[in-house]
Amino acid sequence: MSDDCVRQWTRLVNLSCFELTEDAVVHIAQMPSLKRLTMNLSPWMSFECASSHIPGSYTPFANVCDFYFRSLDLRALIDFINEMKVSPKNIKLEAIEITKLEKLEDLFSALTAHATEVPLERIIIKSDHVDPYWDEGFDPNHPITLDTIRPMFRFSNLHTLNIDYLCAFSLDDEALVAIARSGAVTFVGPLESHPCRSHGKFRCAK
């Protein structure tokens, strides 16, 4: 699908495409009919520049509830959220490389910083690297902990937080109780293929 085609349409509801140019992103960001967007996020795209070309009378992607992105890593998604100030209902990212805990924390910070009345319900973050035992960048000394995911507790409708890539978790009984009591997150951890290297032991948490 060419950018020229995208810029010709004004009433799209569902758009699935590869990478778009800055002009095309500016165009679809102002489209009130758009509800669902599936797109490759280019690491070379300047979302700051794109957002500066959207008139102040528009809220970028105002009516998009579902975002499904493919990217090299989390950075492009973080930039997209921060610059476009989106507040989705569902968001899914498939990335090639996800190894840095601080990027995950940056993503959660971006989501909470731009939260609106739209109730975030589902987040899926997964790596599509072909080798689930790929160790480059894996650091067992910096696991995902309760403090990592605690910012997401503010989303009272969040029912799925799926972190599906090679990572270490350190969630003890107290952490599981805190998650359960938050009333926000009902699932944390990989749903599919990647092994989760856990620290700590789990007893019957009530």
Query: Can you summarize the main beta sheet?
Result: 6 strands, parallel
Taken in chain order, the helices and strands follow as HEHEHEHEHEHEEHE
Q: Can you tell me the residue ranges where pLDDT is under 50 for at least 5 consecutive residues?
A: 197-206
Beta percentage is: 15-25%
Q: What is the radius of gyration computed over CA atoms, rounded to a whole number of angstroms?
A: 18 Å
Overall pLDDT score: 80
| Number of helices, counting only DSSP H or I runs of 4 residues or more | 7
**Intertermini distance:** 52 Å
Beta strand count: 8
Helix fraction?
25-40%
Shape: globular
Structural class: alpha/beta
Main-sheet strand order equals 1-2-3-4-5-6
Summary tags:
206 residues, alpha/beta, six-stranded parallel beta sheet, two-stranded parallel sheet, 7 helices
Brief digest:
It contains 7 helices and 8 strands; from the N terminus they run αβαβαβαβαβαββαβ. With 206 residues, the chain is an alpha/beta fold.
Protein model, in words:
This protein is α/β, with parallel strands linked by helices and 206 residues long. It has helices at 3-8, 22-29, 47-52, 74-84, 101-113, 146-149, 173-182; strands at 14-16, 36-41, 66-71, 90-95, 122-127, 160-164, 167-170, 196-199. It has a six-stranded parallel beta sheet with strand order 1-2-3-4-5-6. Strands 7-8 form a two-stranded parallel ribbon. Strand 7 (167-170), helix 7 (173-182) and strand 8 form a beta-alpha-beta unit. The longest helix has 13 residues, at 101-113. The radius of gyration is 18 Å and the shape is globular. It starts with a helix and ends in a 7-residue tail after the last strand.
